[in-house]
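Onboarding guide, step 5: your first structure request.
Type a short instruction followed by the sequence, for example:

Predict the 3D structure of this protein.
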Amino acid sequence: MQFHKGFTFADGAALAPYLARLGISHLYSSPILAARAGSLHGYDVIDHARINPELGGEDGLRLLAEALARHGIGIVLDIVPNHMAVGGADNPCWLDLLEKGRDSVFADLFDIDWDQEQPNLRDKVFVPLLGKKLQEALGAGEIALIFDDRLGRYAFAYAEHRFPLRREDYAEVEQGLEHYRDAQALSELLGRQNFRLAYWRDAGERINWRRFFDITELAALRVEDDGAFELIHGAVFRLYAEGLIDGVRIDHVDGLADPRRYCRKLRARLEVLSMQRPRKGEPYVVVEKILAADEALPADWGVDGTTGYDFMDQVSALQHDGANAERFAQRWSALSGRSAEFDAEERAARREVLENAFAGALRAAAQSFHLLQPNIAAAEFERALAVIFENFHAYRTYATGDALEPAAGPAFDAAVADAKASSPGETAAIEAIDDAMRGAFGEGGREAARRFNQLAAPVAAKAVEDTAFYRYGRLLSRNDVGFSPSRFAISADAFLARMAARQARFPCAMLATATHDHKRGEDVRARLAALSEVPELWEAAVAEWFAFNARLRPKDVTAGDEYMLYQTLVGAWPLDRPAEPGEFRERILQWREKSLREAKLQTSWFSPNAGFEKANADFVSAILAPAHGFVERLAGFVDRLAPAGAMNSLVQTALRCTAPGVPDLYQGAELWDFSLVDPDNRRVVDYALRRDLARAEATPASLLSRWRSGAVKLKLIQALLALRAQAPALFTAPLVPIQTPTNMLAFRREADGSGLLVAVARHCARACIESEMPLPRAAFWQGQGLAVEGRWRNALDPARPPISSLDGATLFRELPVAVLIA
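The system replies with structure tokens like these:
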């Protein structure tokens, strides 16, 4: 649940009865510590000691916890140990750092390279927050020395920013503040400060402190420092000890110096605090971790699992038809002129972001390896690191530079091999990096390994999620946070093997299908996945649309961008005509601008191309104008495809609630979720509608005929969460796969003499298009069934008589999912 000034703790407390009726055990809260004014997400923390007053402060939090507790609901809190907001005038730690420099008590909180080669940066913080070059800003009178009454100190004022004056300069300044209205005098005074102001465009090349990705307003923190650890977690520990929260979600764990050490330290502290809690129990700890295609979360971190991006990827891949993967890839390449392979886009994007966003960080990392091997030039290490990062298909390693600690892993080994093959001239430096990561340099290698890993993660995030995902359009349902787009589909057996592995290793990991970070809502992806089964219908529709809209298409709209636009329109189109067509158009325009800028091909956040963006926006508006006629064609196609998408949606909902793990329900996704990327996925949720639907007495099957309302999805969630509460042992029991025909997936779980059987339909798009329902007709299932004995009760409608025949027509008589109890 996302809290902000427009949706406070009081609003959350009012929903407690609804959440209980739905079957929620814990409210999974967005960050709640004091954040930047007006923050809609809470990840821009400014004060770790306070609860955000815009949300209701600590009193409001206690009322929320009490309201939830009355209904048996706890709180799992999202925490942000990796970074905090800087700039402005609201972060006391940052302001103290700027005033006192290396002598600040917060100097070790931030990750700053104090020992710079450039004399004018040594022992200073490089602050690239100006809208122009420093001398230009001074000449324009945009920087002024003032006494800020709110801060109680002298500071240089620039727009909303305040840069505190050194105390050593107070006596001089107090002799005559008006003297510093002169630009030269002000420049000389600035030169003596503990910071150096600079143009924001110089950040990537010259910044001497680590950021969250490439965002200068979010400074990375050194949580590995004991003092920083205590400062960052003090309020969280207090809330946990008092029983106000039951666990935490660790944001961006890959940004930390040593995730394993951090997680174990956090777990140990929470376990000690458990003894003080009014209710005993183990703390629940999950990590936001993006796993590579065949990567497993290390078992020795002391966490309960991930936040569920891996499940989201797996259930999506299950619903794609791998037989058509190459056809979609070649179609994309022929139409766009870009590579058919995602890996090629990823490598190119990695090269670009290293050069454009992380040049300074790359140079600093190279220098750390050069100190270990002075006979190899720092420039050689820079080139070697660049080619390793280009070929490294994971977020990071967990090597620490210690031979006795975790190895760098197969993804790193493959990257090293590929780097040597593609750049034989850099072999010596590449091998030295490999040696350092393996612990060959002892204690000296720790700093180099840390720098490698803390650069690898932002490079991966910016290159893959925030660049390549917006350049590669084979099928956009496979481009989402935590996904591996190069893997188009997985088999039912592979999916079940992954579920069994989760049960064995992390039985309490989260299972997500929608998050605040997703690129497309869960039901957008489910609908687009259905396209993978009907490529000829999709190709015919796209060809018609390209021709129909040709006269409106300006030269700045590329075929690839137009193809991705059509996918987005098909995925996000409402099941009923938009009540406000203009609102839908604005959502698409917002997505379009973001997607074009993230792709960084013709425009970007760094260098917006106004003409290019306007041409694309005008094209979107023109084709969506009702008078043009394209909307009728779009709506007609979606009407045909939507039943297949809805079937996929109900199936992924059922699997999320019955597979090993803890189901996570994103706010509002109880009904159909046709949202797009942030901020579209943070829109206001109509809880009144959801509350009314939850109160209604109805089985999921009774609502299938009215599936467009989404009520069937809500009731399916409600029924399955009730079943989990009634028979918890069944949902912690091992998963046993059941052999199934092509269009089914099934498994059993048994405990205490009872059994749970889950069967779902898959790859039924053509049958759903024919039936015009999210359910194939009975004839489709002829000859398909499960060879399982016993008498089974329908857990979704207990009033139904037991069945013993598990043929497809019986299993899926009313829904595309069957959940049975014996």
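Each response can be followed by summary notes, for example: Residues 736-821 form one domain.
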